[in-house]
Model the fold of this input.
Amino acid sequence: MPKYLIISLTMLTMLGAGCFSNNLDLRADAQPLPQVPTTTADYGQGPIYIYTSEQCAYCSTVENAVVKGQVNRQLPIVFREISRDQQNALEMLAVTQKCGLNIAKVGVPFLYDGRNCLEGTDRIMRYIDERMRAFNNEPNR
Done:
């Protein structure tokens, strides 16, 4: 079995079992946390990161709505798949910690735009609808 698959499966199992805590190991010999995507821009600007898993039906719902509605052509949406990509999974953990959320209780789909942290299909779709309305109402569009 490929090494990355074993690492990803182990990490997802630990995440699902609540083995990660808000007190991440920050010793000198510990792996540094990945850079958290962030923006100081006002609402409506900057990238929107949506963390997903290929086994998640709710994630597929969000991805399909974004692609089918061509929202990703108007808003800077970046999907980050966490079940196959360890770096994306670590990034999501860092974002979760930055948001002050309990890592053991956060799932996917999970949205982060530098200011807002949202979990769940309904909340994410409402957020995207609001961003699209704001985008379409901006002058010079």
Remarks:
- Confidence is low (pLDDT under 50) at residues 4-10, 12-42.
- The first strand starts at residue 48 and ends at 52.
- The longest helix spans residues 121-137.
